[in-house]
YMGG-like Gly-zipper domain-containing protein (Paracoccus kondratievae), 74 residues
Amino acid sequence: MSKKLVLVLGLGLTGLAGCTQGINPTDMDRGLIGAGVGATAAYVGGHNVAKGAAIGAAAGALCDDVRLCEPSRR
């Protein structure tokens, strides 16, 4: 898998971690979702699963801090 595809996949996974807005997720929720998706993507891509999980967890937990997955303000 090319590095460009991995980068695009990583950005997509960050967005996916924010898809739990209907349930008002915490950083822990988004981190767990990101870790699962990151590990799966790394496994499918033939990369280090632990590293994929760590990157996914960080992306999920921090996505609201960088305003990529802000919760809706009603």
Observations:
- The chain has a mean pLDDT of 77.
- The CA atoms of residues 64 and 70 lie 5 Å apart.
